[in-house]
Amino acid sequence: MRTSLTTRLGEVLLLGAVLTALGCSEKDATKCTEALDGTHKSLAAGDVGLTGQWRDRSYKYCADQASLSALDKEIVDKQSSDAAAKQAELERTAQTTALIKLFVGWAAENRAAPDHASASPKCDGDDATGAAAAEVKTKDRLCTATRTAGASTLTARYWQADETIELFTTTPVGPVSCDDLGPNKVLKTFGVPAKTGQLVKRDRCELTSGPLSGLNVVVSAASNAPVYVFSSSFLDKDPALKKIAGEGGSGAAAGEEAHHDHAKKTP
């Protein structure tokens, strides 16, 4: 009887050892490294499905629980970051769309009389004193009217002696295309250098219908880039804008330099 029990106990222990050995055989250092590498690459590529598959494979072949816990944390952090970035992009797009809609309406309302775009427009030379003030006797000068829209500013520049010579600008947080401002025909497309060293696409178009029909537009495929809507005659009054619009200067670099100069001069 005792011998029978001993035999059975030995068989149980042997079976347990075999099962343990089989369980341990699932762990494989080479396959573990491959699975971890696959998880990292899939996560970086934003492939949620493939990331999950590689993660399951990592749990199958990796024995180090600390590494697996760190992997899960990395996955959760990356997915949370991606979700936040996506939400921020949606909000940025919504803000840009709302601002451009407001901007187009504002420019249309004030196109015929840009001096009414602000309760207190200012003209070049208004702050002059003494002899300089006495020289300001003509309307052959540029004037500026502004309106605040939340965190954004809408600006109108016009020639006081002929208010059909005009420019409207604003700076949205997201990139804008000519199509965002209305039906148009493209007059010119060129690249301007960005801070990253890469070229950013810039378009100059003419609006062909709608409340701003006949005016020109300059937009750039970059975030926080000014939008310019103007009469072609305004280019003769603003050399910086002329370069921004792709006329004169020495190509893309001149256009971007003019962009920064224009931003400094425009209130």
Write the layout of secondary structure elements.
Elements: H1 2-25, H2 29-45, H3 48-61, H4 65-110, E1 122-123, H5 130-135, E2 142-149, E3 152-159, E4 162-170, E5 184-193, E6 199-207, E7 216-220, E8 227-230, H6 239-244, H7 252-265
Antiparallel strand pairs: 1-2, 2-3, 3-4, 4-8, 5-6, 6-7, 7-8
Structure, described:
With 267 residues, the protein is an alpha+beta fold. It has 2 domains: 24-97; 111-265, no CATH class. It contains 7 helices and 8 strands. Strands 1-2-3-4-8-7-6-5 form an 8-stranded antiparallel beta sheet. A hairpin with a 5-residue loop joins strand 5 and strand 6. Helix 2 (29-45) packs parallel to helix 4. The radius of gyration is 33 Å and the shape is elongated.
Q: Which key phrases capture this entry?
A:
single chain, alpha+beta, 2 domains, 8 strands, 21% strand, elongated
Specify the structural class: alpha+beta
Q: Please tell me the total number of domains.
A: 2
Strand content: 15-25%
**How widely separated are the two ends?**
103 Å
Shape label? elongated
**Radius of gyration from CA coordinates:** 33 Å
Element-by-element helix/strand order: HHHHEHEEEEEEEHH
> How many helical stretches?
7
- Helix fraction? 40-55%
Number of strands: 8
The largest beta-sheet arranges its strands as: 1-2-3-4-8-7-6-5
How would you state the average pLDDT, rounded? 85
Question: Nutshell version of this structure?
Answer:
This protein is of the alpha+beta class and 267 residues long. The chain contains 7 helices and 8 strands; from the N terminus they run ααααβαβββββββαα.
